[in-house]
Amino acid sequence: MMVAWFKRRFGVAAALTMLGAVVSAVGGLWAFAYENQSVGTPAVVVLVGAFITAVGALWSSGERTQFEHDLRDSSDEIARLNREIMHSVTGGDSWCRLLLFPSESVPGSGKGEVGLKYESKYPLYDLFVSMRDITATNRAIQAGESDYVERYEKTINVGNLGSGEYGMSIALWDLPSTDEQDYVIDFEARNCRWRQSYKFRQVNGRWAVATRVFKTGYSGGPKVLYESVSHDFPRNERGSVDW
Question: 99, 102, 112: which is closest to 200 by C-alpha?
Answer without folding.
Answer: 102
